[in-house]
Each structure stands twice: as C-alpha cells, then as structure tokens.
Amino acid sequence: MGDTLRIVQDMEEALGRSEADLSPWFHEDFVWEANYGSGIKYGLDEFNRNWWDPFREHFGEMDFRTERYLEDGDWAACYGACHAALIADFMGVRATGQRIRIPYIDFWRVKDGRIAENRVSVDFAAVLAQLGHDVFDGHGWDQNDQEGPAPFGREGKA
Amino acid sequence: MIERPEQAALTRDADLSRTKDTRGVIEGMVDGLNDHRIDDIGEFFHDDFRWMGNFGCGTKHGLREFQENWQRPFQAAFSDKVCIDEARLFMGEWAAAFGRQEATHSGHFMGVAPTGRRVTIRYMDFWRVEDGKIADNWVMVDFPDVLRQLGHDVFGGHGWDRKDPGDPASLSKKEKE
What we know:
The complex is a heterodimer of chains A (158) and B (177).
Chain A: H1 3-16, E1 26-34, E2 40-42, H2 44-58, E3 59-72, E4 75-86, E5 99-111, E6 114-122, H3 124-130
Parallel strand pairs in A: 1-6
Antiparallel strand pairs in A: 1-2, 3-4, 4-5, 5-6
Chain B: H1 19-34, E1 45-52, E2 59-61, H2 63-77, E3 78-91, E4 94-105, E5 118-130, E6 133-141, H3 143-149, H4 173-176
Parallel strand pairs in B: 1-6
Antiparallel strand pairs in B: 1-2, 3-4, 4-5, 5-6
C-alpha cells in the first residue's frame, strides 16, 4: 500500500470515530462532488455542514463495509455500502429505525499529503427503494432482469 | 518484534503483474463502446459476467442480459453518444473509472418523451478482469441527474444538494461558474 491509500484509510478511521477536525486529511478547499441528490460541496466547511453532519443526523449505528480498495498513483478508489439505522426522516420518508444499506463508490485524489478532490456516487435512490418508494416510478431499467443475487446497489438485506 | 495491525486487507491479493493486461482490456472495451459495438462486445466480457448497477439501472446476469437490458435500451434512448473517462485507475486485476457520456436524448427515457437535448450522463465503474475479459462490473450511473436535465427532479426537492437554501452548493458546477 502506498501513501495515497494510507491517507484515505486514516481519514476513514477519523470519520468512524467522529473526529471533529478533519483538516489533517482534507485540504480546506477540497471539492466533494457527488451524484444528483447528494450535491457538490466546496471546501471542508461545506462538506461538514451539508454532508457529514446531516449524514450523522440521519444514519445511526453506521458500519461502512467497503468491499474493495484500489490505488494508482495519487488516486484511490473504493466501493461498498454503509449499513445503518435510519434515525431521522429521510427525503420525506418517516424514520422508524429501519436498517438500511447505502451503496457508494468513492474516488480520491491526494495532493501534498491531503485529499484535494473526492468524487462520489451515493445511491440514495436505493435507500428510498428499501423504504418502499421507487423514485423512478416503475421506469427503472431493471424490469427485464432476472431475479438473482444483487451484491451491490439494489435492495438487499441491511 | 512489534505487533502491527494488518493493513490493506482488501487489496492484499492484488497481483500487480496483471495490471498491464487489465489496462488493455478496459481501454479496448471503452473504445468498443464508443464505436457503438453491441453484438460483438463479448470480446471484452465473459458470457457469464456480472454487471451490478445502482437502483434504476438493474443487475445484468451475463452478456446477453447486458446487451438486451442495458446496451439496447441505452441506444434506443440516446444517440450521438461519446464516452469520456475522466480518471482511470488500474491495480492488478482491478480497474476503476469515472467520467461522462455526452449524448442526445432522442428516444423515450424513463417516461420522458424525446426532447432532442444534449445531456451529460455521469458514471462510475469498478471492473475485475479475469483471463483477458471482464468478469465483474460494479456501476453507478446518474439517471437522476439525467432526469434533472430533462426537467424532472426524482427526489421532489428533498435532495441534499439543497440543504441550505441559497447555498452555492445547490448549484451544479457549471451553473456556478
């Protein structure tokens, strides 16, 4: 393992213990750029205020189960799912402590020992599906797929 | 001797001698997609490969289901498509990329009649290559963002890009510039 992945994994441990100051791992002006519904956060303050704080308010007993890490030069990437309990109303759906899983893919670029860029996909549509709400209203491209194990991305055991 | 915790358990089985082969397969496959190949795309995928997408995209078991339930509907909904990886990573038998497809919305897409608009379809991919072909493919394609570009917010205003009203984060990068 090289320095890039070591910094990323250190940062994840800091998130896991709810470290208040994340500046040792992120540049103050880093960019967190995610898919629609999750947004784009410019800088550490905006990341905290518009992503990490709401995330912790909504999801309790978080268990990040990353299935694979990859590292290539100053980039690292991973995919997995966060398993958690829904503890606050989420996108209009009432919270009753349901167990859910939140699939993700992350890419990070490290510069001078800290994260400068974080590109993310978070599958909030899958979370809503687990809560009984299909955001695509039956138009999803899974209609003709066979039933089978869906280890990632679709509704599954939380 | 000092006992140290095990590091990088999830990458420890990476066989770095295979990185070059992996790169060749992925680069060839993306060129193949850009050349609009469907019938012979099996050059790059095992017959029983697994394509595991985010919600709304589905899970394709095998090449045929990928062709019939992903490639063909995609071709029916979008034309003049170009696929641009913005970053590619390779490590042993593994590869990952993110990027965008630029295409014209020229067919029905998730209930929206063709608009003729140019849209950007963002994606992220993870691949595992085995014996010269892709065996596993984890995918996230941002269909909610495509629908946003067509005027429909699937999250009904509840998206976390709008946590603070008036926050610049509620704008896309392009809109901000």
